[in-house]
Amino acid sequence: MNTKGNPVRGRINAYFFKIMEGYMHRKYGKTKKDLFDSLPEVVVELGPGVGPNLRYYKKGTKLIAIEPNPHMHVLLRRNAEYYGIELDLRVSGAEVLDLPDSSVEAIVCTLVLCTVNDPLKTLSEIKRVLKPGGVFAFLEHVAAEEKSALAFLQKKIHRFWHWFFEGCNLNRDTAKTLEEAGFRTLVLDKYSMNTIFLPIVPHISGKAFR
Question: Name one Pfam family in it (predicted).
Answer without folding.
Answer: Methyltransf_11
